[in-house]
Amino acid sequence: MALLAVANVAGTRYHQPRPTWTRDPVVTCDGERLRFEAFSACCGVYARLDVLSEALDGERLARGTTNVDVNDPLRLALARVRGADPLRLEVGPEALAVTTFDGTVVERKVPLPYRWLRGFAEVQAICSAFDPRAQLAAVDAARFLRTLPKAERGVLWVLPSARSLRVTSRPASGAVGLSGTHRLKELLPLLRFGGQLTVYGPGGATGTRPAASAWQLDLPGMRLTLALSPEVARGFSGEGAVLTALAEDTVLDDAETVGALLDFQGRIDLDALAETSGLSRERVRAALTQLGTAGRVGYDIAEAAFFHRELPYDALRAIKDNPRLAAARSLVDVGAVNRTGNLCTVRAGSFSYQVRFDGDRASCTCRWWAEYAGGRGPCTHILAAALDPATHPQENRTI
Length: 399
Known about the structure:
With 399 residues, the chain is of the alpha+beta class. The protein folds into two domains: 1-237 and 291-315, Proliferating Cell Nuclear Antigen, CATH 3.70.10.10; 322-387, no CATH class. The chain is 26% helix and 28% strand. The chain has an eight-stranded antiparallel beta sheet with strand order 4-1-2-3-14-13-12-8, with helices on both faces. Strands 17-18-19-20 form a four-stranded antiparallel beta sheet, with helices on one face. The chain is globular. It comes from Planotetraspora phitsanulokensis.
């Protein structure tokens, strides 16, 4: 049922629901576990099922990543599995075979949607800043999920309350954002198997703006994680959390060095990787973020660690095709950035915007910054100011 939950997320459009085609879960084997990953059709929900070693009984010979189609025959086969029924998985580079009492269903490898690359890049960057905020036993989690409002009421917030969670319409310190309660529906049928639900959110005090969250259900031998974008109408592919890393040309060489040392590790040890590569821990982490933009690195919030996978994408396409970053490079190329001290004037068309650097922070006078204030990554003008050669001699800044 947990694998079916991932398939259901892949086939659902939570924002403006309408019939859609099934997307294709990505399967990674690191020699000890299987990871199944997928995004919803609207890219606002990321689902990952980690099947741990204690739940696997069989040969695990090769490490690698593939992506397979999930059509109605496979969905039906998964839905018919009950209780202690055996489920045999054969994962290869070109296909996934599922065998149950009803027979064997084979699904072939198909191309992945490019939007998923940006989604994978963003979700690993966002989740790496999460902290655990609450833990609920299965019975308490089921009770909480059943009492959630069914109708969409905009952005809600949840706070720990005794053994459960309390829903509020106003944010508070320690609150976790929850936009679109229906996006958690895949968790409820699984709670009858017991386990524990852990809720994650951004570290530090929660502001007034919507925030992403992650909901992790620990089951016997496996973990199911659902990461929700800040709002139902916002897909992870447009969040902009990795734009700063994409704008840093100096990290590309580090990413090449670190990437050569990756070997489908299920848990990347930053200190060991730093020692082997000869880079500092901070540079290794920045390099992993850069590798994440090509889908080569994900993040496991349960273990607070990155993991390695390989996806069939052009690593430079994320840089070339990102609209904000492409627009920022165009502004730099035409000399639209004029810097005086910590203040940059960026001309875009007939308008001029002021970008101010204050220590390790930046702000802009554009409408984008006024609306999101960095909540969806830096705006085009801040990126242009950071990319401008006159800015490079200055100290590193967090944008």
